[in-house]
Amino acid sequence: MNITTLRSDHIYQKVAQASPEEKLELFRNEMMAPFMKQWQVQQIPFRAEEANGFDVVTFNSMMHRSPDQITPQISPEVELISSDSFWLECEHAVKESLHLFIEHEINLPVSEYLFTIQLGNPENRALTINEGYSGFGGIPGFIWGTLLPNEYTIPRMKVALAHECNHNVRYQFIQWDHTVNLGELIVSEGLAENFATSMFGGEWLGPWVTKTNAETLNWHIKPVLREQLQLTGFDQLAPYLYGDELAELQNFKPVNMPYSAGYACGYYLIQYYLRKTGRTICEATITPAAQILDEVKGFWDEETIISG
């Protein structure tokens, strides 16, 4: 297994010193080009002329600092993610996460991995509602972390990367296509967050779970989601997974769901599954959602207790 770290701090430093005319192509070639295979899978054009002005940089700039924002003025942000110890901690989290599956005798089809951490766009509401950190790992072989760097988010980056590594492994075994349903995404997010806390401890549980209280989960979220598990079409299922505010930011129709409803539900659903079956989180990660959901029918009727 080969894990490559793309040191974004070095790229930010170069782009910050570049002329306004050079910034865009420098950023595209240094930060975006190493992830070319991911963009191809996601069908996002590498250059704007290929698709009416929309390309990888436009897409990336929704959540992250755009090339024109990378100036000497953001040097304090760059400095916060420039220590060798920070990058070693992140790399260790990725290595430990992936090796855990090998230790459980799960042979990973993908052997080459690339990860980086990017500075988030402070104007992005989807990021700020997540307390300033996030990630993406749904395309096997590619893992991203995103943060608004501060004392809260920096130590949580390793946990977010473990969460994304879990997605990365799952989608080496589970096919993702247009037929993916809400049940799969609830299961997937529950697996990823249980995996991350199994590695680092429950005190690192993300806000996408901790912001939901027991009353909301049991009497508002669970009764609705149990009836929507077969729902397909991302525009249809996104409001149930992310909640109304995040869905509306993507121009999806709200469905009266609170923040990250599907994430919180998935976390406790997978806890129920692991207790009931005695399976390890690694075994569960590569198990089809239909099989997991079949084992947890009692979860929907049982009141979930939230401790802490």
From TrEMBL:
GO terms for biological process: proteolysis. Keywords: Hydrolase, Protease. It comes from Paenibacillus glucanolyticus. The keyword Protease applies. InterPro entries: DUF2268 (IPR018728). Residues 86-293 form the DUF2268 domain. This is Zn-dependent protease. GO terms for molecular function: peptidase activity. It comes from the Bacteria.
